[in-house]
């Protein structure tokens, strides 16, 4: 399924073949949490205009609305969204721990209340796999516990051990679901998630343990949740040598353009983050010279595109002055245009990283852009 084409240092260039199409790696997943990109972006926009290879949707949110059984009845997420490229579904674990009210963690799973209406819900490894099977995603993520950073050493140890037991149950349940007649995607893949907080030894031990399970891919979870960036990079460096070379590597919830470049330099293949769309809806624009805030007065009569070095549909057709006006006038089109630009920028960033790896010039690309893309204009 995954072919490593070449490396440059720890950076990797590969091809990931799935039942819903071939993915060029490294890549960024555009986050459509509830089967839609916030900001009014359609599947047609993603496929035809924004260079999106993979969309990410969320198990927890889709279980609550409209309900995974309804999505199954509608033919699965691909039919429901009219998106026919790969989809990854997050397991719902992070949302259970970040959004749910009055959660109780037990060996069997987690009892919690919906953040929408307070309804009592139970989710464990089997339930998460069943929901994701109903959604029919290309890649399902294992159900895990995402601990806070920092967290007490003993708690992290116990949590990691339980996450491993949950992962084994996820694997067994997915094998059962994929064998059933009528399963929407009998080729659904399972990724395990490395946890361990900011403790090097636990991270390494946990990665070594789950690498023995022969899963379809492996993720590093529980980072980018408030710890300093340098600690995140350090944890990746500790874990990466123990991740299977022949499987995709996913850094969950990351991040800024600079984070992505630095993640690739440390051996990561897959990224996702709400940042490009969330920040866009508040007027923050990513460009090849850094980050600008389009609502600033400096852009009131600026006739340039959002980024003169960008050829996205927005930059080809609209000025900074116009987009700023839309934000000031609270027009919905403001968010849509800004989100379109930022998603195009992120997908183009990964495209250029792949090109640099193909040419053996990633180190030069990293040197030129890692700091530049993080600066404020």
From TrEMBL:
<feature type="binding site">
    <location>
        <position position="315"/>
    </location>
    <ligand>
        <name>Zn(2+)</name>
    </ligand>
</feature>
<feature type="binding site">
    <location>
        <position position="144"/>
    </location>
    <ligand>
        <name>substrate</name>
    </ligand>
</feature>
<feature type="binding site">
    <location>
        <begin position="90"/>
        <end position="94"/>
    </location>
    <ligand>
        <name>substrate</name>
    </ligand>
</feature>
<protein>
    <recommendedName>
        <fullName>Queuine tRNA-ribosyltransferase</fullName>
        <ecNumber>2.4.2.29</ecNumber>
    </recommendedName>
</protein>
<dbReference type="InterPro" id="IPR050076">
    <property type="entry name" value="ArchSynthase1/Queuine_TRR"/>
</dbReference>
<dbReference type="GO" id="GO:0005829">
    <property type="term" value="C:cytosol"/>
</dbReference>
<feature type="binding site">
    <location>
        <position position="310"/>
    </location>
    <ligand>
        <name>Zn(2+)</name>
    </ligand>
</feature>
<feature type="domain" description="tRNA-guanine(15) transglycosylase-like">
    <location>
        <begin position="11"/>
        <end position="372"/>
    </location>
</feature>
<dbReference type="InterPro" id="IPR036511">
    <property type="entry name" value="TGT-like_sf"/>
</dbReference>
<dbReference type="Pfam" id="PF01702">
    <property type="entry name" value="TGT"/>
</dbReference>
<keyword id="KW-0671">Queuosine biosynthesis</keyword>
<comment type="similarity">
    <text>Belongs to the queuine tRNA-ribosyltransferase family.</text>
</comment>
<keyword id="KW-0808">Transferase</keyword>
<dbReference type="InterPro" id="IPR002616">
    <property type="entry name" value="tRNA_ribo_trans-like"/>
</dbReference>
<feature type="active site" description="Proton acceptor">
    <location>
        <position position="90"/>
    </location>
</feature>
<comment type="pathway">
    <text>tRNA modification; tRNA-queuosine biosynthesis.</text>
</comment>
<feature type="binding site">
    <location>
        <position position="341"/>
    </location>
    <ligand>
        <name>Zn(2+)</name>
    </ligand>
</feature>
<dbReference type="GO" id="GO:0008479">
    <property type="term" value="F:tRNA-guanosine(34) queuine transglycosylase activity"/>
</dbReference>
<dbReference type="GO" id="GO:0008616">
    <property type="term" value="P:tRNA queuosine(34) biosynthetic process"/>
</dbReference>
<feature type="binding site">
    <location>
        <position position="195"/>
    </location>
    <ligand>
        <name>substrate</name>
    </ligand>
</feature>
<dbReference type="GO" id="GO:0046872">
    <property type="term" value="F:metal ion binding"/>
</dbReference>
<keyword id="KW-0819">tRNA processing</keyword>
<dbReference type="InterPro" id="IPR004803">
    <property type="entry name" value="TGT"/>
</dbReference>
<feature type="region of interest" description="RNA binding">
    <location>
        <begin position="253"/>
        <end position="259"/>
    </location>
</feature>
<feature type="binding site">
    <location>
        <position position="312"/>
    </location>
    <ligand>
        <name>Zn(2+)</name>
    </ligand>
</feature>
<keyword id="KW-0328">Glycosyltransferase</keyword>
<feature type="binding site">
    <location>
        <position position="222"/>
    </location>
    <ligand>
        <name>substrate</name>
    </ligand>
</feature>
<keyword id="KW-0862">Zinc</keyword>
<feature type="active site" description="Nucleophile">
    <location>
        <position position="272"/>
    </location>
</feature>
<comment type="function">
    <text>Catalyzes the base-exchange of a guanine (G) residue with the queuine precursor 7-aminomethyl-7-deazaguanine (PreQ1) at position 34 (anticodon wobble position) in tRNAs with GU(N) anticodons (tRNA-Asp, -Asn, -His and -Tyr). Catalysis occurs through a double-displacement mechanism. The nucleophile active site attacks the C1' of nucleotide 34 to detach the guanine base from the RNA, forming a covalent enzyme-RNA intermediate. The proton acceptor active site deprotonates the incoming PreQ1, allowing a nucleophilic attack on the C1' of the ribose to form the product.</text>
</comment>
<keyword id="KW-0479">Metal-binding</keyword>
<comment type="subunit">
    <text>Homodimer. Within each dimer, one monomer is responsible for RNA recognition and catalysis, while the other monomer binds to the replacement base PreQ1.</text>
</comment>
């Amino acid at each position: 399924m995954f072919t490593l084409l070449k490396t440059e240092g720890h950076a990797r260039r590969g091809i990931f073949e799935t039942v819903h199409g071939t993915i060029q790696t490294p890549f960024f997943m555009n986050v459509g949490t509830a089967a839609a990109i916030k900001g009014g972006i359609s599947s047609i926009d993603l496929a035809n205009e924004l260079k999106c290879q993979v969309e990410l949707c969320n198990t927890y949110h889709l279980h609550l609305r409209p309900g995974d059984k309804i999505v199954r009845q509608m033919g699965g997420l691909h039919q429901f969204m009219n998106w026919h490229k790969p989809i990854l579904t997050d397991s719902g674990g992070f949302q259970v721990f970040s959004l749910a009210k009055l959660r109780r963690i037990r060996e069997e799973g987690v009892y919690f209340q919906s953040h929408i209406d307070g309804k009592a819900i139970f989710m464990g490894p089997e339930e998460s796999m069943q929901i994701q099977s109903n959604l029919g995603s290309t890649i399902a993520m294992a159900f895990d516990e995402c601990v806070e950073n920092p967290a007490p050493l003993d708690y992290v140890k116990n949590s990691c051990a339980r996450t491993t037991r949950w992962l084994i149950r996820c694997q067994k349940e997915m094998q059962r679901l994929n064998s059933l007649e009528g399963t929407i995607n009998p080729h659904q893949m399972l990724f395990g998630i490395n946890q361990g907080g900011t403790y090097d030894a636990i991270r390494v031990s946990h990665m070594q343990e789950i690498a023995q399970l022969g899963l379809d891919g492996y993720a590093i979870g529980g980072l980018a949740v408030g710890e300093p960036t340098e600690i995140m990079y350090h944890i990746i460096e500790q874990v990466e040598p123990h991740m299977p070379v022949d499987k995709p590597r996913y850094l969950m919830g990351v991040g800024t353009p600079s984070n992505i470049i630095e993640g690739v330099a440390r051996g990561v293949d897959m990224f996702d983050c709400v940042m490009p769309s969330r920040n866009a809806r508040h007027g923050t624009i990513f460009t090849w010279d850094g980050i600008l805030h389009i609502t600033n007065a400096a852009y009131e009569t600026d006739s340039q595109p959002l980024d003169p070095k960008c050829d996205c549909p927005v930059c080809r057709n609209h000025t900074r002055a116009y987009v700023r006006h839309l934000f000031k006038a609270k027009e919905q089109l403001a968010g849509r245009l800004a989100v379109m630009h930022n998603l195009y920028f992120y997908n183009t960033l990964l495209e250029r990283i792949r090109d640099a790896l193909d040419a053996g010039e990633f180190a030069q690309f990293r040197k030129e852009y890692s700091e530049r893309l993080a600066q404020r204009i």
